[in-house]
Design goal:
There is one protein chain. The protein is α+β, with helices and mostly antiparallel strands and about 700 residues long. About 45% of the residues lie in helices and about 15% in strands. It has 21 helices and 22 strands. The strands form six sheets. It has a seven-stranded mixed sheet, sandwiched between helices. Strands 2, 14, 15, 18 and 19 form a five-stranded antiparallel sheet that branches. A four-stranded antiparallel sheet has the order 7-6-8-9, with helices on one face.
Length: about 700
Amino acid sequence: MVSKKSLPIVIVLVVAGFLIAFNSSGLVNPPGKYEQIFVQVTEMLEAAHYNPKKVDDEFSKKIFTKYIETLDPDKNVFLSSDIKELKKYELSIDDELHGSPIQFFYAIDALYLKRGRELAALMPALFQQPFQFQADEQISLDPDKAEFSKNETARKEIWRKRLKFMTLERYSDLLDQRALLKTTDSAFKSDVQLEIDARTKVKQIMSRNFERMLNKTKPDERFDMLVNVITNTMDPHTTFFPPLEKRSFDEQMSGKFYGIGASLRYDDGAIKVATIVAGLPAWKSQQITVGDQVLKVAQGSAEPVDLTGFETEEAVKLIRGKKGTEVRLIIKKADRSIRIVTMIREEVELDETYARSAVITEQGKKMGYIFLPEFYADWERPNGAKCSQDVAKEILKLKEQQVDGIIMDLRNNGGGSLYDVVQMVGFFIPEGPVVQVKDREGNPTVLRDRDRTVLYDGPLAVMVNEFSASASEIFAAAIQDYGRGIVIGSTSTYGKGTVQRNIGLESASRVLNSDNSELGTIKLTLQKFYRINGGSTQLKGVTPDIILPDQYENLKYREKDNPDAMPWDEIQRAFYTRITPTYDLETIKRRSSSRVSQDSSFSAVRGVSAMIEKSNQKFYSLKLDTYRNEQKQMRSTFKHLEESNKGQQALSIQMLESDEKRLSTDNDKLERRKQWIKNLSRDIYISETCKVVSDVISQITLVKGS
């Protein structure tokens, strides 16, 4: 996070200059809203972005290609002749960004709607006859390998296969459901009827999709998509928020809504679970995990609404509702199985995502476990919650329990307050630098802990994974660079080493003075993080000292998988004194590696990882028997992991007595905390981390004894 005072004055001057020039030019036809947004966004990117790409013909070509991919990611709407026709705008988008009349957006928008109407008219004929699933056909759903159709006949064939695959998925699911229900003859549906049901459902979905495309989605929304393509081409974290989206974002950040405690993301045409808040309905259900696809949402006993074709925001609106009301989610798991999860909406409060702790007993040793889901900070209120203060309180509580070591769990922690991560590293080290921040002028600033006291000096482990980003990476990197503790997790963290700030655009009638505006808001990358050893956390992330198998390891989620990500580099090392550990890290690593290699659960994780990587190749058979065999194999792999985890000995983990007493007046919160403790007891990653810390404690004890 960056304070408002640090915003480069040049941003204000550039935008103000644009407005003054406009007001004094005497133009009869002032630029419209789209032109104002284009010019202001471009000026802001060029004047203040940390490492702006030149807005020239090459930049224009990238925008041209990426926006077409955004509108038509599967290359099944436009024809190759359309792309040739649009090519005349390929080198002029940069001119439009600098003030020329907008042409590209209007041209592609008209063509997009025209092709959409053609496809909508084509759909009934494609659904007229039953799909046959005996032929040995295949379909590739990898957009990178697809090409735009040369004619309407070729495009029709692409859609025939896609609709057949969608029907096959649902037909196979219906066969499974029929087998599970073991229905009586009077209620029994034949294979023919199940195919009709599946085909009818897909037809309804496609009808809704084209209704959304042609009638519900407004030109402003597609223009906003174009602006985001422009900002994201600078770097993945520079983003455009239209006014409504920004207000929605602010409301969400306030935490005052009722829902299930799960955030969603749009992925390849599907709505998927992105994160889950500990202690809330989705988490308590024990049936929903990150990556699950949300197929339908039902209000109580009402008919479920199919989410195919929905945007994330629309899905969120369906899931949220009044406190205490019932919502049902029909989800598809990674093993392709379907589950119906019923939950009661609860208030999604910030305190459910605050730092919390527990005590774990492992091999006769007491481990303090601290869970931190994000680096939160409420700067609007003098006494607002700050994660550094909360973590300090948890450390003191654990010290009262006389723990032998502490585990900081930063898995899935996407970051947050820079100030608080600096304070937090200071709890574990004497005075010294924590992170370096460099601006676009190349000036590095060293942020340091100035408090010489150390709150906790015992054995320490930091848990991370591929979703640990930004401030989480700063913390893990500092602990690693100082040699203060052991970092444990997947092969690397996310790799986000940049700083953003929200800056509002303004119409000609107003002054730039807010991060909200009637034209929109830019979340702009202004600075870059560097470790105290000089290396950037950007792109490469942090490589743990001990690497554990991860089922999502081979999926392309990290910063390095985005072609527009800023590069890794390094600057001069800050001066700091490394702490010499009183244990041998190489011995600790060998012991962990030996345990993990013999552990059935981690072996199952490797199998799931390989299966997910294979399924992510997006190449499927359209033959029923082959498709069902592939799905059966996938389910078997996931079931093996589930059974392996159940076979693990549960950790001995207890809630702190002070927490239990504090929560005793709120039964709901107390039950959520108990469920959280229960879930932790079956976490194989926490179990292995406890064993690592136990090894460290044993080595330190031996050194002291000698």
